[in-house]
């Protein structure tokens, strides 16, 4: 089990390292965007300003995209180094697994090490791995003696479906619960939801998995406890409990974030103004509260996606699903270097990509935010 | 534009004995407020921060703070506001009365277009379809001196003065009988203030709307209003025609406010200040709330609350002071 913990902590450590890099960059952008727009607007140069804005909007987007592409490359490079060195430094030797517990002559051992280039110095190994990855060669699994890419693509659909289902659950239940809470803060619904979200946030996903299996598979027999099924609907049926277990923590978190973001908007003066104009409360809530809170909720939703990816390690193992997460788990326990490295890098890539998407949605959610405003400010 | 008040038509805004209590206060924050605004008339509600003037104006729209309990009568265009259900309140706010807020930058949703802000109230209540609402918005944008272009712009692309014009245009969308303006120029710079005041006066006479103008600025009140109501610690202490109240105040508080107003034509020197501060709402006051700060207070002022009485030789003017009959108070500088 300690190997599993090691694997998930490698993945999450590298993910959070790139998280801080990405989020610090984007927060600077939006802060300076708001500041600059405020300054220009108050100076009263309105007509010239909007002309400049529309002319430079297109080039802003390209400049932003170019800068983010460079940031993405740097982030991936840093993450790849962290991942490679973490796996390199981890205790245990891959040749022990390759030998399957048999004792080998020093000559045989040396041959194995030479075949997998295990004797090369660290920088040489890293550089070989990096150039291979850059060419789309993810290496060969030590455990299965097959290309990592094939092993991953075979396991990808189940994991994508699981994450997709969990993401839908998180979005619907999390935002829905937050919205219901914000409708009447301190009311009965809000208090019940606060208790429920506390339970959801406080329950680790593998505990939730065991509880769900016990109730819905063993006692009630409604859902299968193992396997991922075949065909879309059978898969969805098989993945219902895993998706619930996976989403539980993030439903609670997103509900809390949605509630807090909406309460912060509710106290804004423009909401009081909207009410004073006789606008129906449900429209006030939708157009003036949720709409304005959407930026923070989108950020949290982005983090959720990456969190779901990392949590599949535990949930897929608990439900005996043959997905990417379970693959990472088993590969770590047998020190299957190429697989662990490839999956870790995949998780970091997902993280960076999701963050990029979230950043690109900001200007749509808040017209005061301009892409790449740091350069033009 | 002094409109003579006729007794036959109902007052556009009629507040009688309005008492509002908030949790955690020892005395009502509004303690028997009487206020009238006639059709097409402009009344300035004047007082320091915390006197209850904003609360009074918001009560006209049925907007009371959470947990507040209210008694008394608030009627807008003959309809009782305090007993309205949510639906009736919405209709009142969309069609009968509208409020112009202090800070348009905070009051207009920053992520939605100005056009949405203008047409939203009409459209969400089914009072107008998209085209009709847009047409009306264009008429009013023209009236406040803005171009059609702002419909597609976002609030941060406009200056504060332009945004306040948007706010004013939005308030007139449904042709209300009553406008409530809560310090509409306080957040603007001085030159913009003058423009907005001129615009408000112009529109008010053009659309025949009654206006309750809430301000702490007595000079401004004297410029814009037909009548003035001076408020202190939740009560109206003096009412009357604006020029007469300004020239010859009957309540010591009104006189003190006038003396504390900085004036360009006054000799340079120390500005008169009113000693002390507005009494804490967590204390009970038996007598006149101003007694503790009043230079003319006698024992009776502390012991018993002064009745509101008509001012002799002045039409529709009242004062709530035990000593008003015997005092001679200094008025403000004559205007014009």
Characteristics of this structure?
heterodimer; A: 377 residues; mainly alpha; MetI-like fold; globular; disordered N terminus; B: 336 residues; alpha/beta; eight-stranded mixed β-sheet; four-stranded antiparallel β-sheet
| Most residues in contact: chain pair | A-B, 31 and 36 residues
Report low-confidence residues of chain A grouped into runs of 5 or more: 1-52
What name does the CATH topology of chain A carry? MetI-like fold
Helix content of chain B: 25-40%
> Count the helices of chain B. How many?
11
Shape of chain A: globular
Instruction: Indicate the proportion of strand residues of chain A.
Output: under 5%
SS-derived structural category of chain B: alpha/beta
Coarse shape of chain B: globular
Mean pLDDT of chain B: 86
The N- to C-terminal Cα distance of chain A equals 51 Å
The biggest sheet of chain B, with number of strands, parallel, antiparallel or mixed sense and barrel status, is: 8 strands, mixed
Q: Count the helices of chain A. How many?
A: 14
Integer average pLDDT of chain A: 78
Describe the structure.
- The complex is a heterodimer of chains A (377) and B (336).
- Chain A has helices at 2-43, 46-89, 94-98, 106-115, 122-134, 148-183, 188-202, 205-219, 232-266, 269-276, 281-318, 324-333, 337-365, 373-376.
- The model of chain A is unreliable at 1-52 (pLDDT under 50).
- Chain A contains 14 helices and no strands.
- Chain A has a single domain (2-376), classed as MetI-like fold (Orthogonal Bundle).
- The radius of gyration of chain A is 25 Å and the shape is globular.
- Chain B is α/β, with parallel strands linked by helices.
- An eight-stranded mixed beta sheet of chain B has the order 6-7-8-3-9-10-12-11, sandwiched between helices. Chain B has a four-stranded antiparallel beta sheet with strand order 2-1-4-5, covered by helices on one side.
- In chain B, a hairpin with a 2-residue loop joins β4 and β5 (79-80).
- The longest helix of chain B has 18 residues, at 190-207.
- The relative contact order of chain B is 0.14.
- Residues 1-7 of chain B have low confidence and may be disordered.
- Classes of the chains: A mainly alpha (377), B alpha/beta (336).
């Amino acid at each position: 089990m300690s190997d599993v913990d090691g694997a998930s902590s490698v993945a999450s450590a590298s993910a959070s390292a790139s998280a801080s890099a990405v989020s610090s960059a984007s927060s600077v952008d939006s802060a300076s965007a708001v500041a600059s727009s405020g300054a220009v607007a108050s100076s009263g140069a309105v007509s010239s300003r909007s002309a400049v804005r529309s002319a430079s909007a297109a080039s802003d987007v390209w400049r932003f995209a170019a800068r983010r592409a460079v940031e993405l490359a740097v982030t991936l490079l840093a993450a790849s180094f962290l991942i490679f060195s973490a796996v390199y430094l981890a205790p245990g030797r891959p040749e022990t697994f390759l030998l399957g517990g048999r004792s080998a002559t020093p000559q045989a051992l040396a041959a194995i090490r030479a075949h997998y280039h295990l004797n090369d110095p660290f920088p040489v190994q890293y550089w070989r791995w990096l150039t291979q990855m850059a060419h789309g060669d993810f290496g060969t699994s030590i455990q299965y003696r097959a290309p990592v890419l094939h092993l991953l693509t075979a396991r990808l659909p189940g994991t994508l479906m699981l994450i997709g289902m969990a993401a839908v659950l998180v979005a619907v239940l999390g935002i829905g619960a937050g919205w219901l809470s914000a409708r009447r803060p301190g009311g009965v619904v809000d208090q019940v939801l606060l208790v429920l979200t506390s339970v959801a946030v406080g329950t680790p996903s593998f505990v939730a998995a065991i509880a769900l299996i016990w109730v819905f598979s063993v006692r009630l027999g409604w859902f299968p406890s193992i396997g991922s099924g075949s065909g879309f609907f059978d898969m969805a049926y098989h993945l219902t409990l895993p998706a619930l277990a996976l989403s539980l923590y993030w439903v609670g978190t997103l509900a809390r974030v949605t509630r807090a973001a909406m309460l912060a908007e509710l106290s804004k003066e423009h909401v009081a103004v909207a009410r004073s104009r006789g606008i129906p409360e449900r429209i006030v809530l939708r157009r003036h509260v949720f709409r304005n809170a959407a930026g923070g909720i989108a950020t949290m939703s982005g983090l959720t996606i990456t969190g779901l990816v990392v949590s599949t390690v535990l949930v897929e193992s608990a439900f005996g699903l043959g997905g990417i997460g379970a693959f990472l788990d088993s590969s770590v326990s047998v020190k299957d270097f190429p697989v662990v490295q490839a999956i870790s890098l995949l998780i970091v890539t997902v993280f960076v990509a999701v963050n990029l998407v979230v950043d690109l949605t900001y200007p749509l959610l808040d017209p005061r935010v301009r892409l790449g405003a740091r350069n033009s400010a | 534009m002094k409109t003579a008040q006729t007794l036959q038509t109902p007052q556009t805004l009629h507040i009688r004995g309005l008492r509002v209590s908030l949790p955690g206060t020892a005395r009502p924050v509004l303690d028997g407020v009487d206020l009238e605004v006639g059709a097409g008339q402009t009344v300035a509600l004047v007082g320091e921060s915390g006197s209850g003037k904003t609360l009074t104006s918001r009560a006209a729209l049925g907007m009371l703070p959470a947990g507040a309990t209210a008694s008394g009568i608030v009627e807008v265009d003959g309809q009782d506001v305090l007993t309205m259900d949510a639906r009736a309140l919405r209709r009142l706010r969309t069609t009968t009365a509208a409020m112009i807020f202090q800070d348009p930058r905070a009051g207009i949703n920053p992520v939605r277009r100005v056009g949405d802000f203008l047409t939203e109230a009409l459209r969400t209540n089914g009072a107008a379809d998209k085209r009709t609402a847009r047409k009306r918005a264009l008429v009013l944008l023209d009236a406040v001196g803005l171009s059609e272009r702002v419909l597609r712009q976002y609030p941060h692309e406009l200056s504060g003065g332009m945004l306040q014009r948007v706010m004013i245009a939005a308030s007139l969308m449904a042709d209300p009988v009553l406008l409530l303006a809560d310090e509409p120029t306080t957040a603007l710079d001085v030159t913009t203030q003058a423009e907005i005041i001129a615009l408000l006066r112009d529109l008010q006479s053009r659309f025949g709307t009654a206006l309750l103008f809430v301000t702490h600025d007595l000079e401004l009140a004297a410029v814009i209003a037909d009548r003035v109501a001076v408020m202190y610690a939740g009560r109206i202490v003096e009412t009357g025609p604006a020029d007469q109240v300004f020239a010859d105040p009957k309540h010591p508080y009104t006189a003190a406010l006038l003396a504390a107003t900085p004036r360009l034509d006054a000799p340079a020197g120390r500005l008169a200040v009113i000693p002390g501060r507005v009494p804490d709402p967590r204390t009970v006051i038996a007598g006149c709330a101003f007694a503790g700060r009043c230079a003319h207070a006698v024992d009776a002022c502390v012991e018993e609350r002064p009745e509101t009485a008509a001012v002799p030789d002045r039409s529709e003017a009242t004062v709530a002071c035990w000593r008003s009959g015997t005092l001679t108070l200094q008025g403000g500088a004559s205007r014009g």
